Amino acid sequence: MSIQFKGLPTEAVHALQRGAPDAYGRTPERRISDGDGVPCRHCMKDVAAGDAFLILAYRPFPELQPYAETGPIFLHADECERAEQADTLPEMLKSSDYIVRGYGKDDRIVYGSGRVVPTGDIVARAETLFERDDIAYIHVRSARNNCYQCRIDRA
To answer: InterPro entries attached here (predicted)?
Structure first.
């Protein structure tokens, strides 16, 4: 099975970079990166030391519902190129492990699909989850803080 890691959609990211409100209706906060642990969810690379970035509330679901988790993410403050959709781990995934969790077509968690997975096993875990008909897509989230990292779809 082939999979694709996907960064956030460019149109939505550019709107946020231009000052559009985040998931809580607030203007994204602007900060300067120290170069440590500031992964942009659009280009899926770390924001370099000295570069500006945004902190904002993001909800990777189309509408509000009980399973529509909202949380903090980082983006480059200036426009960056969206990461190419690929079947290999994004550059920004540098922690030792992540939560890998499946969602159904109704955008709700598929119970029993979530697991903390060593980073090197994410691709294999995603391929295993996609063998199930009830998994429409997968989120990769921080194992420590549950922050959204990226989405995985079937290729």
So the answer is: DUF1203
User: Are residues 93 and 65 located together in one domain of the fold?
Assistant: no
Q: What is the pTM of this model?
A: 0.95
Q: Kindly report the CA angle at 149 between 146 and 150, in degrees rounded to 5? A: 130
User: Per-residue pLDDT tens for 106-127?
Assistant: 999 999 999 999 999 999 999 9
29 close to 54: Cβ distance less than 8 angstroms:
yes
Same domain, 105 and 135: yes
Which domain, by its residues, includes 94?
86-154
Q: What is the pLDDT of residues 36-72, one digit of tens each?
A: 999 999 999 999 999 999 999 999 999 999 999 999 9
H or E, element range at 11: helix 10-17
